[in-house]
Amino acid sequence: MKQRTIRSLRPAIACGLLSTLILSFNHAMAQSPAQAQTETADLDPVVITANRIEQAADDVPARISVINRDQIERSQAPDLIELLRQEAGIDVTRAGGPGAQTSLFLRGTNSNHVLVLIDGVRVAASGTGAFTWEVLDPALIERIEIVRGPRAARWGSDAIGGVIQIFTLRPDGANARVRAGSQDDFASSFAWGRQAGNTPFDLAVAGRTTDGFSAQNPGGFAFNPDDDGFENINLSTGGSFLMGQGQLNWRGRLAAGEIEFDQGISDFENGSLRLNYRHRTSVNWQWEASAAVLHDELDTVNAFGGAQIETQRFQVDWLAERAVGSNASWLIGLDGWIEDDESLGQWSEARYNLGLFTGYDGQNGPFGYELSLRLDDNEFYGTELSGNLGLNWKLTEQFRMFVTAGRGFRAPTFSQLFSPGFQFTPDGDFFFAGNSDLAPERSWSAELGLDWKPLDNHRFHASVYSNWIEDLIDFSGMNSQAVNINEARIQGIEVGHTYSGRYWHSRLNATWQDPEDRELDRDLLRRATSKYNWTIGRRFDSGHTLDAELVHVGNRRDFRGFSVDTLPSYTLVNVSAGYQFLEHWRAELRIDNLANREYEPIFGFNAPDRTAFVALAWRG
Length: 620
What we know:
The chain is mainly beta. The chain has one domain: Beta Barrel (Maltoporin, Chain A). Helix content is 9%, strand content 58%. It has a 22-stranded antiparallel β-barrel. The chain has a five-stranded mixed sheet with strand order 3-8-9-6-7. It has a two-stranded antiparallel sheet with strand order 1-2. The chain is globular and about 65 Å long.
């Protein structure tokens, strides 16, 4: 990696190592073995996103991280992006303030190279292939599972960089929260649920409104100095009941609101509903079937015209899992979806995708393994074969090593296939048009990972990975038409340390990556070559909390007009505190960008100045 990247990280690494030594001493001197046993649960969570079955994260030969409800509440993050930007290997860019268009790059891959699931439902829009991260309120999130590396062998298209699955809130009891902040930012949420018994049920609702700030500065192509506001309301609900020898579960959610941007405004609706039935036929066999629907609509009016884009997707899944002996399982599955996408006045298309897959996971002494194979049949581009092989070696109770290799792919979006483009010249030439002859993007990826737990509540981890993407779709044909021309090579290193104790917690990670566009011999746009995060906090016996976040984003390339230039690095410090009073009440404070750092997340776009939020929370 580049020497300037390593030098830029030295202060954070030094601080992180110092915190590790301090927390290790505190852990050794202040905790009993019983406490350590209780507090290490989050260091080895059970996950289902990696292979579509429940597994301990340590048994999966992949780099996985989980953001749980306690972390979400303690961070007091005003939106989902503030949670995700703390994770290793994730770059985020936002074109303005709250509600503005947001892109997420996982391990340097494109924003539509990550499969996004909410409660098992594919939620990306068919037109762009990306999810609107800005519309999902953290108040309605129970946990987030992030699996890095290709998982197409289990999930199919889009899982080139990895899979991010969001599970909506499942409250047990009642809670409520109101918040006020800078730029007339107001938010509130309420949730109630009953998880015990044979018929659990829950309901949660959250809303936010803010005046915001001007999305663009004078360097932007559509600069208007007025404030750009955001209004959003979220609702989620779910439950289950016994049916025959199985259980029927259902989860639903809806987000709706309005987004203002310079010289324009958008109205959005995004919702999904999933029914899932799980049945155990014998001691060794169990199966489940599900059906889901997604509705995504975005209506935009701006100074250049308007657009109305709508996605409807119907999705079905069937999985059967068999225990093989005491240490292995065999999974077979079928899934499929039909998606309709319409861009008013431009295209109205539909296509189906059918997938057949199988996987074998097991443990033989200290060695674990997984093998997956999948065949997809898509109405537009035909068949695609993908696979994954992983080996897991627990050398000792403290040390684990894994190696994995896999093949991923992504089907072209409707916009890349059918968009008529934009008329920039009087003679009728259209630029940035789609191409119905596009082939899928394909990738090969390999990773070596190491985990070390010197003490019960400490974990160090490191991963080295390489990802090759072929037939990368780029708008570089005649009149910038979409073509399969580019090849990308992304190499990277991720390191981190996690500590979770009775009083203190710390999460430190650093990412070095070389996201190279091989066709143009330059870095892929808007992806930093270095990035590090550090979250540290203390919980008191009284229930009070004090937390701090440090985010450093290194240099990255971006378009400045019609040329490519370098955006400088920036560092942010966020702090939060919680004060527990009476039995059920809590006062909270969060300050973002404490040092009031000025920076551009994208050329021509503004980032928030120092902002403060105060909140009052009640839990019954």
